[in-house]
Amino acid sequence: MDLESLKIFCVVAAELSITRAAARLGRVQSNVTTRIQQLEADVGVELFVRTGKRMSLSTAGECFLGYAQRLLALEEEARHVVTGGLDGGALRIGCMESTAASRLPVLLAGYHTRFPATRLEVTTGPSRQLLEQVRTGRLDCAFLALPPGIGDDATLEDMGLLAKSVWREELLLLLPPGESSVRRAADVQARSLAAFSQGCTYRAIAEERLGIADTTDWNVQEMGSYHAMIACVCAGACVALLPKSVLELAKAPQSLKTLHAGYAETCLIWRNDYDVPAFQNLAGQLRRI
């Protein structure tokens, strides 16, 4: 097993096509096929399931992909550290959808201006999943709202993680047009919540504020964007909880009213053994804004 084979494997796993992977890598197809076969022989299992001209990752391949990505990231991290950051390196950043929309553009634009050689990779997702990806090394750091039960330094330390509060978000419960006179979350008549999938801290906060766990009346509609959530609220079908900074960007209709739902800290999370120049530059950039 060598790094070049791992790189080829990751590209084939992303493309699920030898033809497209070969074009992306600038290699002939036969070379890519041979390297994959050699890698499979080396690890002793089939990494892909081949059905005619179609291919997909096997169960072993899905497991191996995470390790391959971590090994490649570790190699790049080592190179970046020993050169003192001269090669630019890469930084894999995770963040919530809300942070990507309202906070990251200014931060990352400034970072790129100062450190153009560093390759920035941004992934969005629910806070709990992002936390796990940082813990396992699939992400270098992440901006997230700590999930319930993981709000103290001792718990994070047990996970091998460090946290620094970066932004304080005001949370608002967005009400459908027919409930503009509601003044308390307990008085909301709608029984549907538009939210991200399980693992989203804001979803957990909304469920707690609305008492969803204490009744069977509520339905949660899982959606992939705040724009979709706002659209559903506009249709009178549900309520949604979101940061004020995101609502201001979305320019929701003035007819929609909101209830204050408290505050949540957005934290920067990283592993306690992760200290590379690209990350330190990000920390420095945060202090500049």
Automatic annotation (TrEMBL):
Residue ranges of domain HTH lysR-type in the record: 1-58
User: Highest taxon of the source?
Assistant: Bacteria
Q: Which InterPro entries match?
A: LysR_HTH_N, LysR_subst-bd, WH-like_DNA-bd_sf, WH_DNA-bd_sf
Q: What are the entry keywords?
A: DNA-binding, Transcription, Transcription regulation
Task: List the molecular function annotations (GO) for this entry.
Answer: DNA-binding transcription factor activity; transcription cis-regulatory region binding
State one Pfam family annotation.
HTH_1
Concerning PROSITE patterns, the annotation shows: HTH_LYSR (PS50931)
Q: Does the keyword Coiled coil apply?
A: no
- Of which family is this protein a member? Belongs to the LysR transcriptional regulatory family.
What is the protein named? LysR family transcriptional regulator
Q: Which organism is it from?
A: Paraburkholderia steynii
